[in-house]
Design goal:
The chain has 263 residues and is of the alpha+beta class. The protein contains five helices and eight strands, in the order αααααββββββββ. It folds into three domains: 55 residues, no CATH class; 95 residues; 101 residues. A hairpin with a 2-residue loop joins strand 4 and strand 5. Helix 3 packs across helix 4 and helix 4 packs across helix 5.
């Protein structure tokens, strides 16, 4: 691998390209390197797979409803008209006209009042929707920040990957642990967990010298990348079946999966 390729891989252009944060010139440069150098293409495929793992583990559902229409149509009802009676006195005609004008004015005033009340209520609804949208944006920004942080941890060259498979007690169990001893971080990707009776659960432990330290409970519905407490000088990881809610001491005789972290 020549110095030109090493310099390119040590830059952050591939990461920026994956998340769509490159300029037009940077995009052209990355795509040229991917098509020309197999080493760059392999690195790109690895980054893409890791990003897919993080994205799937943090997938969120789309909203169940859209915003309602802001304005509703107003029904216009005709004002009742009075039949003219011939041979009425002039003053009586004026009184009828005045009465009609008063009725029209009263009806218009009532209509404007009701419309104004509707607009006030709609404004309150809009304000609530805007508040909800801002809250959703804040949540999505935090989620995106968490995803990018996990993505960086996965692609850190110091991060070590451990595949943990179940034994005869749980043949379909599979998890992947990511441990970075330099930054002292650890995560686990729960790929599959066989279903247990309601009164039992899976609990993961770190083996430290002659004792087992609990790292938490793994749930069947927890199929995502989740952080684990980092344990200094851990010799291995062990998953056991424990009573619902977890146990203070590991039931080693009910171990369903274990892996050594020794180098």
């Amino acid at each position: 691998m020549n110095d030109k390729i090493i310099t390119f891989l040590n830059s952050d252009l591939l990461d920026k390209y994956l998340v769509g944060n490159t300029s037009k010139e940077e995009t052209a440069k990355v795509e040229a390197y991917i098509s020309k150098y197999p080493e760059v293409k392999d690195a790109y495929n690895t980054l893409q797979n890791n990003l897919e793992i993080v994205a799937k583990s943090n997938a969120i559902e789309a909203p169940e409803h859209l915003l309602n229409n802001i304005l509703s149509e107003l029904d216009e009802k005709p004002v009742a008209t009075l039949r003219a009676i011939p041979n009425q006195r002039t003053w009586y005609k004026f009184s009828i006209a005045a009465s009609i004008a008063a009725l029209v004015f009263a009806g218009s005033t009532l209509m404007f009042y009701l419309n104004n009340q509707d607009l006030l209520q709609e404004n309150e609804v809009i304000a609530d929707e805007i508040f909800d949208l801002r809250s959703d944006i804040d949540k999505n920004n935090k989620l995106l920040s968490d995803i990018m942080q996990q993505f960086k941890q996965l692609n850190n060259p110091e991060t070590q990957k451990y595949i943990i498979k179940g034994n005869a007690r749980a043949k379909n169990l599979k998890t992947v642990a990511y441990i970075n001893p330099i930054e002292k971080t650890s995560m686990i990707d729960v790929v599959s967990l066989p279903q247990l009776p309601e009164e039992q659960c899976y609990q993961i432990w770190a083996e430290v010298q002659d004792k087992m330290v609990s790292l938490g409970i793994l749930n069947e519905s927890d199929s995502q990348l989740i952080p684990l407490p980092y344990t200094e000088n851990a010799l291995g990881l062990n998953i056991t079946i424990e009573p619902k809610g977890g146990n203070k001491n590991a039931s080693v005789e009910k171990s369903v999966a274990e892996i050594s972290l020794k180098k």
